[in-house]
Each structure stands twice: as C-alpha cells, then as structure tokens.
Sequence to fold (174 residues):
Amino acid sequence: MKMKNVAALLAVCLFVAGCGGVKTLTPEEEARLNARDAIVRAGEMIKTCDEEKVDVSDAAELLAEANEAFENSDYLRAKEKADAAYQLAKTALDEARAARKKAMDEAERELSKRRPSSYTVGSWAKNRDCLWNIAKKPEIYADPWQWKKIYLANKNKIKDPDLIYPGQVFEITR
Fold:
C-alpha cells in the first residue's frame, strides 16, 4: 500500500515538474517576438498618422521592408527597420501637431485683434440688444452665457443688468 502511494506521489511530482516548469525562449524566438512587437508598434503609429492626415510614406516603406525581413526570418533587421519606421512616423506626427498648434494659436491671436474692445448698445427694436444678445454676437464672445463678463467689466455703467440703454458704450474684456 505504501509503495502505491509513493509511486503515485512520484508520478504527480514528475507531472507537475514537467508541466509547471518555466519555458525559456531561444534567442531566435526572443528576436522574433521583439521584431513582431516593433512591427505592430510602428504599424499603429503609422495608422495614427494616417488618421491625422500626416504623410508618412517613408515610414510606410520602412515598415514594408521590416515585414519583408521578418518573412525572411531576419528578425534583427526587421526590428531595426520597424523601430526606424516608428521613429520617423512619430517625429512627423509630433511636427505636424506642433505646426497645427502654432497655426491655431496664430489664428486665435489674429482673431482677437479683429474683435472689438468696446460695443455701443443699439435699440431693442432694431438690434434686440441686451447683455445676453450682445455676448452671443460672434464678434463679441459667440456665447450668450458670457453676458456676465460684460456686466462685471461695466458695473460702473450698468445699475441693473436687465436695463441697458441705446448709446451706452461697454468695454469688452478678453
């Protein structure tokens, strides 16, 4: 009876040792996985660039070369090409985003130069002027909820925000 228990225990131990052991990768398997990861990463970056309309044709060519090297089992070259494609695409994307931000900032500065610094109240019958409608005008704030800015900047001229009069000149703060 004891011999059967020892044999069963030995069989279980051998089974667990064989199944639960840590499998190490060969250098080639590791290089293959690293190359595949680099190719996927570069592909995702190029996809992001395409979505943002950034030309990355050079990076796409490098990625194609990386895929070809991968298919030919040249994993080191595949990883190098994929890493280069990723870096090229990332640089192009960063530069495009910076250029877009610069253009937006410049457009905002130009727009703020064109916006008036004051507003003369017209009649209700003609212009429908009230603080809400003045703030709603595109050249003022383009947002009616900003009426309070006009009121606070001109508190010395406005006793009651519901009562403004034709001919009053209000300062428009930015």
Observations:
- The chain has seven helices and two strands.
- Strands lie at 118-120, 169-171.
